[in-house]
Description:
Blueprint: H1 11-22, H2 26-38, H3 46-50, H4 54-67, E1 70-75, E2 78-83, H5 85-99
Antiparallel strand pairs: 1-2
Amino acid sequence: MGLAKTEMFTDQQNEISLFAKVFGHPARVAILQHLFKIDSCVCGDLVNEIGLAQPTISQHLKELKHLGLIKGNVEGTSVCYCIHKENWTVMKTVMTEFLNQDLNKKQDCC
């Protein structure tokens, strides 16, 4: 299988794909849910909360941070993470527009 040719697609299509990918693993969903639940930054150990090994949690946090849905600050020897609310709002807008494409369309095909 060849490399994905993301340059063939629009910026919006690539952005939607990245958002979908980040929600494609239940651990990332659980991390996001936990961050929303506590409604503050988490500086502690997510291992006990999520139930996965620290390296696995770190990899998922890296993915979420890379996409900009969370942000982190170094405090001493730990990193604190929280939802990046501005980017979360942008993601919701992009995904809502994509998911609502079917509204007000004729539903009589196939």
